[in-house]
Amino acid sequence: MSRKKIAGIIVLGIFLFCLCRVSQYYFIAKIPSNGIFYLNNLIGFKPYYNYGLALGVQFSNIALVIINFLIIIFLINYLSHLINKKINQNIIALIFIISGAFSNFIERLKYGFVFDYFQLGILPIFNLADVFITGGAILWLLALLKSKN
User: Fold this and answer.
1) Residues 6+ apart with CB under 8 A from 81
2) How does pLDDT run along the chain (149 residues), one tens digit per residue?
3) Strand partners, 36
4) Active-site choice (130, 132, 133, 136)
5) DSSP β-bridge partners for residue 115
6) Residue 3 CB partners (closer than 8 Å, separation 6+)
7) Which residues lie across from 43 on neighbouring strands?
8) Which of 116, 128, 133, 136 is catalytic?
9) Which of 2, 22, 54, 109 measures 20 to 30 Å from 64, CA to CA?
């Protein structure tokens, strides 16, 4: 893989990470405690301080920080492996996952929780980093399914 492509991957990752961080700071400052809702409360923004895992599962913050760190290191190592082996499949998916995971990791490390703010129907409240992680995982899964066919 060329240096230009590697530089593009790094720039994309930094951009996505910064987008997550800016959205966190913006929504922390702008969302009132009772939230802002549209379309008969179907879509909105509501502050939620997530001290646990997804779906409200509670877990020790220290354990979460360590687990998040190890997962990020594993993903970066795997990304490096893909780049070194010139395997383009899943690189974009991994960049999205790593950027979102690192944003949530920084937040948990700094505050002891992750600030979530998107409310969509009956789904749990989530943030942009969660969208990147989920979107990256879906891209990765689709690439795996495509490669098996």
Assistant:
1) none
2) 788 888 999 999 999 999 999 999 999 999 999 999 999 889 999 999 999 877 667 778 888 899 999 999 999 999 999 888 877 778 999 999 999 999 999 999 999 999 999 999 999 899 999 999 999 999 999 988 888 76
3) 45
4) 130
5) 49
6) none
7) 38, 120
8) 116
9) 22
Query: Helix, strand or coil for residue 45?
Result: strand
Cβ neighbours around 99 below 10 Å, total? 25
What tokens does 99 get?
A: 């950027």
Residue 59 · residue 53 · CB < 8 Å: yes
Residue-wise pLDDT tens digits, 106-142: 999 999 999 999 999 999 899 999 999 999 999 999 9
Side chain identity at 144, as an amino acid letter?
L
Active site residue 130: yes
How many Å apart are CA 28 and CA 30, to the nearest integer?
Answer: 6
Q: At 109, which amino acid appears?
A: L
* Catalytic residue check, 21: no
